[in-house]
Amino acid sequence: MKQSICSLLGIKLPIISGGMVWCSGHKLAAAVSLSGGLGLIGAGSMHPETLRQHIQKIKVTLGNTPFGVNIPLFYPELETLIYILTEEKVPVVVTSGGNPALYTQRLKETGAIVMHVIASVKFAKKAAEAGVDAVIAEGFEAGGHNGRDELPTMILTPMVAQAVDIPVIAAGGIAQGCQWLAAEALGANGIQIGSLFAVSEESSAHQNFKELCLTLGENSTHLSLKGLSPVRLIKNEFFARVNEAEARGASKEEITEILGRGRAKKGIFEGDLVEGELEIGQNIAMINEVKPVKEMVEILIEQYNEAKLNLK
To answer: How many CA atoms lie within 13 A of 141 on its CB side?
Structure first.
């Protein structure tokens, strides 16, 4: 039997927050950890010293309560960030977007629990071989960086759960307690919540972004930038330009030029809803109110228990 994700991470609830760029600062991560789950600081939008400051602040807030850091392995200052994680003795590290074999053992030598985000059975097996303690199986319903094969969570999760002997966390499209229960039925040992927490009170996303998200329907997002690194975007003016370019077969260089620099920061953190890159999951259509994380988690638990009762 696979180890419980709660016993592995030292948490009360099998809920992990997503390491979302421009949303997942120390305030959001601390709120999730204090609610019984595992909060993640998203290092993908932080310079090294900014990351160190967030780690030090969350340590003051949490004391001995566990937290983690999500770090994309394609980050340009990766070696410096890894050094900070080891020096600060971050208890849980979630890697994504690269080869986990490069840093897993180095992180574990400092006592860290290491998990890796994957989007296929092939890479789940590779992550397990690299020695990670758990994998996060992220379906293409998710916002942020997605797998190129576009496997949905309901297909990906049971396939991965059957393929590896380490705990599996289901991610992508999960925003309600009934989906949490469904993930367990699919073989997941826990769930990762992204978009729901992205519009929480503690999220560092701009209020403009949060308010826009609450108005979105089931067809308001689209998997885009597939020639670079697939992300799910809200359909705004920037998305329209990217979509037009991709539809006519624009080169990778042209798409890169359209994207430019700091596009996600402009949209999510600074609130430019026209020119910003607005990343969010497909389940945003199910979310209609900004709430504190604690209240969101309490509602998830109520929904989970109600869904379980309804199965009888």
So the answer is: 25
Confidence of residue 196 (pLDDT cuts 50, 70, 90): very high
pLDDT at 21: 92
Write out the E strands in the chain: 15-17, 40-42, 68-72, 92-96, 113-118, 134-138, 144-145, 168-171, 190-193, 221-224, 231-234
Contact 211/231 with Cβ under 8 angstroms? no
- Helix (H/G/I), strand (E/B), else coil: 190: strand
Query: In 3D, which of 170, 82, 166 has the Cα closest to residue 127?
Result: 166
Nearest to residue 220, comparing CAs of 288, 171, 145, 156? 288
- Cα(134)–Cα(116) distance, integer angstroms: 7
Task: Give tens-digit pLDDT for 101-138.
Answer: 999 999 999 999 999 999 999 999 999 999 999 999 99
Map out the domains of the chain as residue ranges. Answer: 10-204+287-310, 207-283
Least Cα distance to 197 among 189, 205, 207 occurs for 205
Written out in words, the top-level CATH class of the domain with range 10-204+287-310 is alpha beta
pLDDT tens per residue across span 140-168: 999 987 788 899 999 999 999 999 999 99
Rounded distance between C-alpha atoms, residue 215 and residue 301, angstroms: 25
Q: What share of the chain is helix, strand, coil (3-state, %, to 5)?
A: 45, 15, 40
pTM for the complete prediction? 0.96
